[in-house]
Design a protein that fits this description.
By secondary structure, this protein is mostly helical. Helices cover 55% and strands 6% of the residues. α2 crosses α4 and α6 crosses α16.
Length: 360
Amino acid sequence: MFNKFLKLHSGKKSTNIQAGKDIVFNGSSYLEVKEICLDLFKQSLPELRAEAAAIANERAEFISQKLFYELWTKNPEAITRLNQPDMQYNLVAILKEYARNGDQQLGNMLIELFIKLTLQSNKNLIQVNLQEAVAVLPRMTVDQLNVLVLKVLLRFPSFDEGTDFSYLIEYLKNKVCPFVDFDITESDIKYLEYLGCIRRYQFQNETYPDLSCIFSGGWGYYYDLPIDRFFSKGLSRNDLGTFVFDGTNKNCEEILIQCFHDPQKLQLDTYNHLNLSTIAREKNIQMDKFNTLIERFRQVQMPQNEINELLINAIPSISKFFEVSDKLHVYEITYVAAIIVQVYYKTKTNADLDISYWTK
């Protein structure tokens, strides 16, 4: 929700915005730019009936006040650049979009995008994509935004090393479930592709990994180590036999822990499977024994249908998560979509989402 501002009072050659206390912009540039933007907004509107015009003007005044307050709070130096045509063009675009429907969440997101724009002093790829995001965001539905968030969360889940299955469930409840309330169709997917938010992978065999590899934390799909931390059925001491417990493989024992799903069995104690071979070398585990150990645990990884059933029993709404994986596995997120997702995620959770992968 927008903050409820108190009544605005302007002194001579200054503009005050009140948000519990007075905040003063000295000089006339802020007031002039604000009035210019509102005038440009009114001129750009189609001819509306009196009642609709009054609503649009009221919304434009409201969003402009909120925007300038946020700008002063987060990047006050940018106020001196608001007389530039490019800045005013983006400002007017934001006023128009909010005036059309008065969607407060959309307004917050557009303001956040504008703040990010003001942080780019020179024209660069980031600025170009931010401007594109300002144009694309108002044309998207909440369902489409939720799908894109899940797509990013599928791509880069963030777990801490040493986490167990209960941690995974809490992660899904807190980070994923807020975005699973959607209805996605083939038309939505085609539309997101048309908007430039998603694109098909260049190679047919290049897709996102399935959920078992994602939740392993090691991107086994990419690194040929699909060992599963969260969904291993485990092996008993008898299964491992003298291969591990013959008194000569003490270091092998050190990388085993109690299985999350069967306390009578063991599983590998590693989160990042990409570094599994490095761990083996550090512990002086013979590579032939290490590779045999990996192969044995691969054989007891839960199949995808069991993973789905396990998670859905724990979190019924998570079925939507699998729907996204099934429908969008041949698509990747574009930089513009990643920017929009980051802003949307922030407005929903007040947490930052790392999109540095798309800026490399």
